[in-house]
Amino acid sequence: MTIRYELWRKSSHSAPDAECVEVGRSLEGVIGVRDTKQDLNGPVLHFSTREWSDFLRAVRSQTS
Predict the structure, then answer these.
(1) Do residues 12 and 2 lie in contact, with contact meaning Cβ atoms separated by under 8 Å?
(2) Rounded to whole angstroms, how far apart are CA atoms 43 and 60?
(3) Which among 44, 50, 53 has a CA at the least distance from the CA of 3?
(4) Which of 11, 35, 43, 61 is packed most tightly, with the most Cβ within 10 A?
């Protein structure tokens, strides 16, 4: 199954000159995360909305 993501966004914590992590959302609601160093056809991590919420909550609890 191929998931198509729309509107990739660059992380605000990424380097300003290219190398970054981007997050996109599919029409089905799946969250995709990719590393731009791997070019646009590199691997994508797929998260359900629940998994993404849990991930963000865990990351934020480590930085607080």
Answers:
(1) no
(2) 25
(3) 44
(4) 35
pTM: 0.76
Q: What is the pLDDT of residues 11-30, one digit of tens each?
A: 777 776 667 888 999 999 99
For residues 64 and 43, what is the distance between their CA atoms, to the nearest angstrom?
30
Specify the DSSP class assigned to residue 2. Answer: P
Helical residues (DSSP H) of 1-64, grouped into ranges: 49-63
Q: Which helix (H) or strand (E) holds 8?
A: strand 5-10
* 24: alpha, beta or left? (left if phi > 0; alpha if psi -120 to 50): beta
Q: Which two tokens stand for residue 46?
A: 């797929």
8 A C-beta contact, residue 48 and residue 34: no
Enumerate the domain spans of the chain: 22-63
CA distance 12 to 9: 9
